[in-house]
Amino acid sequence: MRLSQPAAGFASRLRARGDEGLVPDASDVAAAHVLVERGLAHPAPVPCAGPHDVTVVVPAYGRPDSLARCLEALAGLTVIVVDDATPDPRALRDVVEAHGATYLRLEVNAGPGAARNAGAAACESRLIAFVDSDCQPVGGWLDLLVAHFADPRVGAAAPRISSTMARTRPEAPARVLDRFEALASSLDMGGDPALVRPGAALGFVPAATLVVRRSAFDQGGFEEGMRVGEDVDLVWRMADAGWHVRYVPSARVVHESRDTWGGWLRQRFDYGTSAGALDRRFPGRLAPLRVSAGNATALGLLTLGRWIPAALSAGTSSALLSRKVIVAGGGPRAAASIGAIGLRSDASSVGHALRREYWPVGLAAVALAPKVPAARIAVALMVAPLVRDWAKQKDQLDPLRYVALRLVADAAYGSGVLVSAWRQRDVGSIKPALRGSSGHVAQRVSGLRDSLSRRRIRAGSTRPR
């Protein structure tokens, strides 16, 4: 992508400052906005000390012990707890009253989206913080998130959510599932800040904890007909309406994950079942596999053992891409880097799809691997990224169990997607998408957002509007 001379100059100074970031002067503000809009830099406003004009909405269904821990973490804030028609509400009501929160009950169980909407309707504050009853925010979380609303374009901000196990015996040693969830929670979006939007490196954030601007939320709220995936739907509608949704990993929240294997698998499966409804609302956005035509050809030839044709196909694709990059102002080195990153990214995407939406094919590859070379390559594409992930945090769990649990978790999610497609009688959520071999340079460039992508634009503290 091209930057204007002022933007390029500011980007160079920002890169030179590294993680320290810098405060843009008056002449740099426009350049800073360009970098933030493109996801190349991220604002790092000074945390706003409270009190804040914010109301916390906690949807709840049963689990009074979890709710008590949640409300303890929210002490000192204005909190509305929405009981989503728990059959016997007495225990929940007692917990709410003991913590000085407001209790609101729905007479019919309508799901978390409807419960959040009901709580939001009872709020009068400019900001609303949605916190699930099995979440416990860590000190300072709200100060960090509220600071981002000084930018009038920000409609929502989300913290990093890590997992813990809610055990009845806290002194007991952590089980395998505990340790795995600490490494690979489905709610943990990683340690890098991001501008969240469809098609970006980070395409959504969960609503397990999410702070929203009231004026942005009132444009639609949560889709009450969706029991799962309603958070993705909200974030995408906000982004489509022009609002910024920011992921702020410095703000931390702990989530109590499922305490049984069956509950854990069911949760992963349920997440996958949202794909059909989301594809119906946002056609084409959920393609499980997006690769360039050239790289797809190269990878296909590679699995067939046709090494020379595979290399020629990859080389042709890279040459076409290089020409476009050079025309756009990049040098041969940048073109080669983008081509290599594109091929690696597409190979990783194939492995990802074989573990999830196409897991029956992946399972067949595992069964055939001892005898079929092509199957061995497919297995390598599936497993190699998991081994790399394990190597970054290997102290928690051994590689065999980590890889095995990742495969099981991905297959559970993929099963949900497949069931959803069958129920909807629509293959949109499982249909792959091909890109032109020389097109979509912007998507390839996303892989080159190395040091600059983590740079912080420092800003002063101002109140949300």
From TrEMBL:
Residues 55-171 form the Glycosyltransferase 2-like domain. One of its GO terms (molecular function) is transferase activity. PANTHER family: GLYCOSYLTRANSFERASE, PRE-MYCOFACTOCIN GLYCOSYLTRANSFERASE. Pfam families: Glycos_transf_2. Signal peptide: none annotated. NCBIfam families: mycofact_glyco. InterPro entries: Glyco_trans_2-like, MftF, Nucleotide-diphossugar_trans. This is Unannotated protein. The lineage of its organism: unclassified sequences, metagenomes, ecological metagenomes.
